[in-house]
Amino acid sequence: MTTKLIQNDIKENQKVITTIQKQLNNCKEFKISVAFITESGVTPLLQTLKKLEEKQIPGKIITSDYLYFSQPKALRKLNQFKNIDVKLYSVDEKEYGFHTKGYIFKKEDENYNIIVGSSNLTHKALTTNKEWNILSENDTQITDEILQTFDEFWNEAIPLEDCIDKYEKAYNENQIKNEKTWQSKPEFKPNQVQKDFIEKLEHVAIREKQKRGLFISATGTGKTIASAFGIRKLNPKKVLFLVHREQIAKQAMKSYQKIFKDKTMGLISGNHKDYYADFIFSTTQMMSKPQIHEKYDPSEFDVIVIDEVHHAGAMSYQKIMNYFNPGFYLGMTATPERSDEYDIYELFDHNIIHEIRLKDAMENDLLCNFNYFGVSDNAVDINDTSDSRVDHIIENIEYYGYNGKRVKGLVFCNTIKNSQILSEKFNQHGYNTVALSGSNTQAEREEYVKRLISDTTDDPIDYIFTVDIFNEGVDIREINQIIMLRETKSSIIFTQQLGRGLRKADDKEFVVVLDFIGNYKTNFMIPIALSGDLSYNKDKIRNFMYNSNNMIIGSSTVNFDKISKERIYTSIDKARFNINFFRNEYVNLKNKIGHIPHFSDFYTYNQLDPELIIKYIKGSSHPKTYPTMLERLDSDYVNNFSELELEYLEFLTLNVFNSKRIHELLILYDVIQNNTLEIDVLADHINKNYNFVDCETTMTSAIRKLDKSYFKPPEQKKFHDIEFITRKDNIICIHPKFKSMLNENKHFYDEVIDMINLGVKYFNDNTEGIYYDDFNFELYHKYSKWDMACLINWPERDPIYGYVIKENPLNGKIVCPICITYDHYDHVNEFYDKQTISWVTTTPRTFQSKDIKNIINYEKQNIEFLLFLKKNNDDGREFYYMGPVTPHNPLEGTLTNTKGDVKPTVYFDLKLKYPVRDDIYDYITS
Fold first, then answer.
1. Which residues contact 249 (CB under 8 A, 6 or more apart)?
2. 114 and 239 co-located in one domain
3. What is the residue range of 722's domain?
4. Looking at the predicted structure, is the pLDDT value of residue 109 above 50?
5. What is d(CA 133, CA 142) in angstroms, rounded to the nearest whole number?
6. Does residue 183 carry a pLDDT above 50?
7. Are both 707 and 845 inside the same structural domain?
8. β-strands 902-912, 879-896: how paired?
9. Considering 142, 368, 502, 506, which has the largest number of Cβ atoms within 10 A of its Cβ?
10. Are residues 388 and 528 in the same domain?
11. What is the pLDDT of residues 295-349, one digit of tens each?
């Protein structure tokens, strides 16, 4: 029997919905009794409920008519499931309310897990509200009482089909209509993010007297309004606002009219020529024409705003910017990163006034919440427009639904031809849709958008099919469903398209996003885009896939069906990053910071994980250093290092930067700064601050690595000329040769210090400092075989293959690390449960083999076994540390190798000390 608190905790990445989904996915029956059920609470669970229906898991749900809060649409949705019975407990004529919040889950072992607390089946209660719930596992006494009470409620409640029509009528009569318009607000005020921008713009433009600045703001966060508030602070007489489409210019002008009541506003486009207004809103196509912009003096405007400024590399923008010389140029974009390597940052003097990305916007509640569903696509290929695919799409969009009275959807397709065919087929199914592309006129686009969003038109449109014309700029707040029918090749484009539905609107609580996921190589871009983590660290991506609802900010939710999840995992495993990928990431970072990035800059700006860069460097045939990589990435880079200096940097890159311990880094830092250090003093510092086990032996191991005695003769020969330190008794000194090199070449000094400082920060950020069982391994962290030998503190760098038994003369321990690749052989390495795994030794082996005898008799020899596990070879060279294991049930057998040869071997069951964590178990065994 166990109990624990279940709550929404942003700091700890915890949400109530995650626990409920987990319990639902692992039950054989469920019962729910809650006072309130809303559409926003049911929608995030739809994928889970669908799975339960397919598995024929029975469920009972009771809610009430208390305060007429539960939404009929949500109740009808639940009642559609064949496996779920829904009842309504009526308090209409009683003197008491109905305020229960309980979730009951029957398990395979006939025990029950029960959640009781404060969370109703509503969106915020499951994701963000301050809620207290207790999860009770296998508490027989309380289970019997709760089941008895549930049955009493159930017997008194009314089957939903017998009362839903009457309840819905009463519900509608009790709703209070709150009209939310601009005019109803006493004063239009900026939000906190906009206030931050206003303050920073004032500082840059007035106090620092800068001439240009960049405002990076996620789609839907109100950057146009923010610019208006900010420019009002600058008090300009004349303003030019540039956009790339007339529709956006009109929207911007409406926004500015709300802020500037005393200024005349005008459009310059194909249809309007309001040349003499105070504030002019123009398309770049028109303003770039000489006969238009030459009507104005180059210094005519106090401020020029360029919206969607990532297009500014185009000739039309350049003509305008080369002609005008305003008091201040304000560039605005959600995505300054460019695939064509044009440097938007340089265009604005690398002066970022304010930056708010999607994650920040969600954290500040600037956007509408979304419920994202990754749905497996049954398409034969990316261009499939078959009837079976259309039926599959329609089935899912109708199942997952939308928030509001009717659907107002955008569908992003692969090609214009696809969008046209799919639109026609949707119309054949009774929908009213249209395909729009760049060939449609501005008037056509505006007319179709009006019909899409209007609730009063006689001829409404359900969906607009498009490829990319609605990726950015166009403000369609009423969108309540986004459909993605294309491969995700770019996290930037994914975010742009997702952003189309994230603008807040009246009577819109959330937007449903359906992403139809095919078997594409770049599927790993989806969790990168949703998480906003651009490090490309595969383990972080996998962790988000498993724990997405806890990790996504705010009330938004992310769910994947089984097939789409497996496709993404496969894409993550097989993702390979070539020189072009690194060049693109490098150029984006260089453009942003305005100089050639240091190695640490990638980590500082969350551009790439340092380990990813080092893995690429290790696999290169070139000298394995960051400066050598820079030579390949940037023709402007000048390599200022001698051959010997590069050897030093290569040694640091391969053996010190991320050796999974802090000792080598601190030793080097201390001797560089102070020339000498006392081993005891540093060991004491590490003991107090890093909690390392057996620090004395670890210090000895670290020193042996830096003086190279740890390495085998071939490696010692390779690094023969490298000398970092000397040691005499308890004192370590910097080697004169190393000290001289640092003093003679500032570039070398800067590179070494940058790598050491980054190594220390990276270690601190990625290490919990919780070590298990007298070894410096952290449970479920990843280690290479060289890391294992290092952290076991072996005095030499002995290789580890499948396993090795070795006694350490430094501390007398006999240790056997076991490395298992789970998918290496079919059904050989297999979890029987979360605490037992089968293991086959190398071949040929029998009970008479020396190492097998040692394993069987491990207790007499006091051998300690440590298990390291990876899913398959696509995982790379690193293994998850699973903790200590003990071998049981040895059995002689045979194994057929990859050549077809049958060899004798020995099988064991390994008993883990710690049950495998759920996400690791699910990932390894899926």
1. 241, 243, 267, 269, 281, 282, 283
2. no
3. 640-766
4. yes
5. 15
6. no
7. no
8. antiparallel
9. 502
10. yes
11. 999 999 999 999 989 888 889 999 999 999 999 999 999 888 765 667 889 999 9
Of 394, 393, 390, 389, which is closest to residue 379 (Cα–Cα)?
Answer: 389
CA 201 vs. chain centroid, Å, equals 30
Tokens of 594: 């305005």
For 227, 309, 328, 645, 728, the CA distances from 198, given in Å and listed in that order, are 8, 19, 14, 48, 61
- pTM equals 0.86
Rounded CA separation 204/231 (Å): 12
Cβ–Cβ under 8 Å, residues 215 and 332: yes
198 and 328 share one domain: yes
Return the amino acid letter for 289.
K
Same domain, 323 and 399: no
Residue 776 lies in a domain: no
Q: At which residue do the structure tokens 């049981």 appear?
A: 888
Rounded to 5°, angle at Cα 69 from 67 and 73: 145
Please tell me the predicted confidence (pLDDT) of residue 899. Answer: 80
The pLDDT value given to residue 688: 87
CATH number (domain holding residue 40): 3.30.870.10
Residues 119 and 203 in one domain: no
- Does a structural domain hold residue 375? no
What digits encode the pLDDT tens for the residues 629-653? Answer: 999 999 989 999 999 999 999 999 9
d(CA 623, CA 173): 75
- For β-strands 831-833 and 814-821, DSSP reports them as unpaired
CA distance 425 to 435: 11
- The arithmetic mean of pLDDT across residues 479-496, rounded, is 92
Domain holding 416: CATH number? 3.40.50.300
Q: Are residues 231 and 349 in the same domain?
A: yes
Q: Which is nearest to 401 in space by CA: 39, 59, 25?
A: 39
